[in-house]
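> run fold EF-hand domain-containing protein
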Amino acid sequence: MEQEINLEQLQQMKKAFEDADEDGSGELDIDQFTEKLGPHLRENTTKEEMDQLFMKIDADCGGTVDWDEFTNFFFLQRKVDSAADKQEWRFFPQDFKSKNETTSHHRDTVEKVYYCSAVDRYVTCGRDATLRLWSPTDLAHNKTISNGTSWVTDCVYMPTARRLVCTSMDRALSFYDISRGVADLTGRVYASGAMGVPLCITSAFNERDEQEHVIFGDSNGGVVMLQCGPRELPARDLIYTDAHRDYEYIHKDHTDWVTQVTMIHELGLVSSSLDATLKITDVSRGKVCHNVTVHSKGVNAFAYSKAFSVVASGGLERDVLIWQANTNHKVGELIGHSASISHLAVDNKRSQVISLAADKVIKIWDLRNCRCLQTITDVDWPHAEDSKPSVMMYDPHRHRLVTALHSPVIWRHHCVSDDVAGHKTPLCAALYNSAFHVVVSGDDSGTICMWNVLNGHQEGHFSKAHGNAKISAMTFDTNERRLLTAAADGSIKMWNFNNGSQLREFKHSEPPMEFTSLLFVHDDNRESNEVVATGWNCKVYIWEDQDEECVKEYRTFTGHREDILCMAQHAPAMLATGDYEGRINIWNMHSGERRMSLFHRANRYETAVEQLLFLPARQIGGAPTLLSCGGDGQMRVWRVGASGQLLCTLKAAQGCIDCVNTICCDNQHQFVVVGDTSGHLRVWDVSGHIDASSEAAAAASFKQVGLWRAHQMAISSVRHVEGRDLVVVACQDTLVSLWTMTGGLVGIFGKHTWKLDDPTSYADPQGLRTEPPMGEYDYLRSIAYTDDGDDLAPEASTSSASSSGSENLEGSSLTRPASQVMALRRMRAKEAAVSAARLSDQIHANLHLHQPAHVPHDVTVLQAEHQSSAILGKGDKKQPERGRAHHHTAGQRSSLIAAARKH
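> ok
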């Protein structure tokens, strides 16, 4: 809907917007927005569509939108339907060094690089007082033009007069005829009297006299148009008398150096200055139409995007500002440079902005979401002598970036990814968003995709969310309008996922470490919003969700001795965190007090608490239920009241050497779904009361209603689709799929299409082709383990449809060492998991799974157990004794991981 608004509709909505703003605040709430602007959009636009559009625009959840937010969304929103948006483009250097001798290079810094289409040559202007022409085909040096003894600062070609005009620091404007393969000086004039030094130049057609003119900006802040022609020899000063006028001032409104003048057909004459302003002038009327004051410091450069009708400008502030040319309002910022901006260019075809900073770093930005796509530093250049460019330009005819220091260098635009209809690396998670009816998925490479759950189509994507760091956790805010992501480098960011723009970042002062779990917690009583994260340094981090680009204030809870792997929250202030050694801490989020610690019985290296989920009390005043899934493949049911009580233990993972990677429930807490490391999904009905009278009664309260193998690899996450008996599944095989609660496949996002209200359009509605759950014996036979630690290809075997397995080997000695090795290998790349697998490799180097008779029986060395218990207080009481012989700290595990990955 939002992609179909044209200029006429936009003008009508502008008037409607102003009429609806009865209190003069300049903002509309959702009801005013829907009522007043809805009639100006597509016919039959529903209220739900208008509400979704409002929420997309109001990404900060402020409850209102102003006109700037509204127009910003339409100017910069992502258009995923175009072919260019389904590709990822980057610049790569092309080496032409063999074509030229160093004697053809400038002897001093280049001040300007310019493409002259009339003669198909690149022109460079240097401080060595020369202009040099280069072939775009191979950068072969074509000609050198000596312009005297002063710096050449800028040049432009006059197509009507067929002259190349340059400005220089000796106050001269020189005209050259280069159309016949020679470079004849045909005219030269000098700025005279109180005029400043010409610094920049452009050409324009004046409708008043129907003539082409040269326009330059000078060091006094003036913008001057020459009236004299290109044939002025011998050289002379410019004259301005009543009888003869060689020039006229377009304006003298700048109060400092004019840094750039450019004639833009859609806008007029645009000039920038070190006085922190840009001015848009109607040359035919000689009137300044707009005075742009979005900058607080001097402006060095600007570039215009035809596709979005916006201007990018930059200077001493280090950030590139994006502003609308028709309203002069800022619509975005490109933040990332650490030095002032010296040059800017725009690739209109791919909606990219290219910026060069004073520290010689080049950045390429996506104009639609203000994200940096590529950074070019000195290490990226093929030759060190070219790695400090002084100028740059973008050649739209050949789709290349041209830079220069002493000679030009070409960076070609290449497509590095044509297929973005899905993910290329293992998935971290896929979240269902009920506000927009989309699924948002993120993978290890930092790519985030949006999928329409109603039909399976991709609705958008953006990449490199955390640079080169992999995404390790994802969640939505309470209203599901903003996305939070955490990464392996310890960064946490908040996004408007509809257009990929970053809203804020949550900082900390700890050393880099991976965050493993992320929550957004809203407290109605305190009217507060908090971001909670846990990770590999045993701490819980809490930030207030402040309206700032960078949130630096935070608090921490300490009480774990091992890496925290998961957490869950129960309103209003109960937080549960689970760690690698099997401890579950229950916290008061307000005070930071640890109320109790829960432990469970498990074998060494199977103690890790992988997932936590709260179920609310079924009766008023009752205690909530906490579900914990461990590395041993079991799900434990705890009653968390004044003290912690283990009610029962249920088998959750299908294979004896699997563990649970993910758990979820529906909004009514009637169904619980878990996914394991071999791709199985298991569904329980928990709609009834959980009977705590005995372990058997509690276990009977969980009625299994579904079990099937959804994928061939480990499940990364599972989420329930609100209002429907469907679950969204993300897998390590890079696929995101949609299933019914009974094992019917709706489809795979990006591969299948469907109509959600029409089950006949589903890929496999009855689950007839869905792979049945693997039996224990078949599961073991499908895994081959060799002495060198490599996993072989699965053997052909007939999967059993039995939910309990054709052979129940659980509890036997066969499962113990194998489970440590294989289950931990299948877990997502966690340091603790890999190191534990490595330890098991070393201890049981001769273990084979081919025949049960070959398995040794003396494997009790790995069976140090914890007693299921609850410890109250702040951790000052003695913890269960742990076998220290094979226990490793997080730092020691890190060393083991490197060796494991190398192996």
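The first strand starts at residue 27 and ends at 29.
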